[in-house]
Write a structure and sequence with these properties.
Blueprint: E1 5-16, E2 19-30, E3 34-38, H1 45-52, E4 60-65, E5 68-69, H2 75-81, E6 83-85, H3 98-106, H4 114-119, H5 122-141, H6 157-169, E7 175-179, H7 187-203, E8 207-211, H8 215-221, E9 224-229, E10 232-237, H9 239-244, H10 246-253
Helix pairs in contact: 3-5, 3-6
Amino acid sequence: MSQNGLLSISNVTMRFGGLAAVSDVNIHVAQGELVGLIGPNGAGKTTLFNLMTGVYTPTEGSVSFLSETLNGRKPYEIVRSGMSRTFQNIRLFRELTALENVKVAANMRNETSLLSAVFRTPHLLRNDDEIDNFSRNLLEQMDLADVADTRSGDLPYGLQRRLEIARALATKPKLLLLDEPAAGMNPQEKVQLMDLIRQIRERFSLTILLIEHDMKLVMGICERIYVLEYGKLIAEGKPEEIRKNPKVIAAYLGEEVE
């Protein structure tokens, strides 16, 4: 792994009973990269995200982030260390407004004492103001300022996706994991999403790892791509290499992507 390496998944296996959902997988992501993870349904992609974010602990192998092993760490601890994610199925707090959703996430990095919370100390009030300002500014950067006070469950699907990314950004991550961000989007929304991913990478100096089924999106924005099949890595390389890889064509793409 290079000196500027951020994420290292080393010889990771995850078994559920006798079934290996992920088997001896090695993935390395350097700081600043935009990397794709593709594969057929059931290939183990979301399982890998769950291993990175503390939902599961590997049966074998290790996950390291910023040179620290994450095995056994709680999801909230991993978020505080600088890794955040979105989900394949949108998981917003539907009864809360867009602003409230972002503020909940921004509070993940807030270590307010119980006394401060009970007595509403000046420090706590200043902190609340800072979080409110930060959250409103983030919504503005994500072109969501107009819906700040709208209940998130009432937002159109494309804006819900955008809000979920905003909520992930509110934790101030160094590494952003996007789990099928284009799922359910129409072609125009997908083009806008590609632009958005490029913009937030630059604006927030992010490293991004994304799972996605839309090959046009993956090939259009990712610098490197890993390919999983039945829990095993079958290919890794630049988009043009993946596009022409016979194993990938046979397992997933069906034909070369135009």
